[in-house]
Every structure is written in structure tokens, then in C-alpha cells.
Please model this.
Amino acid sequence: MEYALEEFIKKIKSTINRVEQGSVALFNFLDESEAYFLKEEVKKNKNIFLYEDGKIINSSRKRFILSSFEKKDLDFNIILYKIKYNPKFYEINHRNILGSLMSLGIKRECVGDIVLYNKDYYFTVTKEINPYIIDNYHHIGKTPIELEEVDYDVTYIRKLEEKNYFVSSFRLDVIISAGFNVSRRNAQDYISKGLVFLNYIPCLNSSKIINIDDIITVRHKGKIVLLEIKGLSKSGKHFIKIGRYV
Model:
């Protein structure tokens, strides 16, 4: 994962160099951690303008435009789809929507957010792959679907599921173990493999102390936040509240 991050940062720097020469760059969808590193690199160059959009309100995955001059008419080349299917006979969810898209050989960076809004599922893709989506995306597993391109406002409503836990310490691996209901060894494996981000920055330190409002992201698992330290039990364990984004 460290290697992938280094390559990503190299790509950002190379793109900025081209933009400095007068070109305009449009990135595929970036997640929040990738967006963080892009913004940090752009901050080092005051001559670069950065614009972002995810099409969906409150989106977590966005496309970014870099330019050496101010732009007004921006086209991020994003298509927003509503998934139409028969809920009486079939059931779909975020996981199998994403899985069905990936099974078509589509790269994750070409797919934005997948959200449930007013009982319907929506997702965004880059306009560059739209013809392939139209020709090939007709089923989610065994569920037959139709796609409707829409241009009205869709909001990503982030729900926070709050639970209380007793933990032995505020170490990163301990909080991950509690918040994601996995063993501490599994939590340490996630960290050592570079799958864990603390406030959107990669963290390889299992013993890192977590503070209130720190956000922990584990790739393929989700995102949690330490909300409250409520007290100490008689046995010396910390009573805390963790929020998990669902």
C-alpha cells in the first residue's frame, strides 16, 4: 500500500508539472484519502487552481480538475444513474451494486458514490465509460435492472450508528477491533497492510493513540469515529462511544 501511495503522489506531481505548462487535468474519482494528498500537493503551488465535484451532494468520491488559469465553465464528465428494478421480487444493496460493476472489469476509480436516496439507489460513473455501461450493465447478480440517467439533486445521507464499548486502551488497533467487531490480530493485519487511514492519512502504527473526533477508515470495511470517552470501569477499562458510518 505504501508503494501504491508513493506512485499516486508521483502521478500527482507529474500532473501538476504538466498543468504548470498550460494544460488542464481531469482526475478520475478520488476517495477522501487520495483527495487529501492531492490538495496537499496543490497547496505547494499557488499558481494552480483546483476544482472538485462528485455530482451527488455530500459525495465522498469526487473528480478534480487542475488548471493553471481560472475556469468558469466546468465539466467534470460525471453521469448520475438511478437503478430501476422490481423490489417485490429482488433486493439490492451497496455491496452487490459495486461488485457487479467491478465484475464487468470497470476500475474503481471510474465509479463514484453509490447511495440510497428516497428508497432508490443511485451511482455515478465517469462519462468516459458511459457507453460501456449502457451496453453491458443490465443485471446486479440475478436482478434485472434498467438505468435512468438523471440530473436532479441526490444527497448522500451519511448515517452514524452509535454504540458503546469497553476497551483496554485508546490504541488504534484496539479501537478498530471494537468499532469493526474484528479480532485485534485482524486489526493489526489491516494496519500493517496499509489499509488503515487516520483522518484520511495512512497510518502503520498499531499503537497510535486515538483522540475524540479522530476518523478511522479501513479499506473495504468502512469508517468509524471516536465520539466520546464516557468514563472508567472498576476493572480499569475505558467506556467509550464509537460512531460507524453506515
Summary: The chain has three domains: 2-67, 78-149, 160-245. The two ends are 25 Å apart (CA to CA).
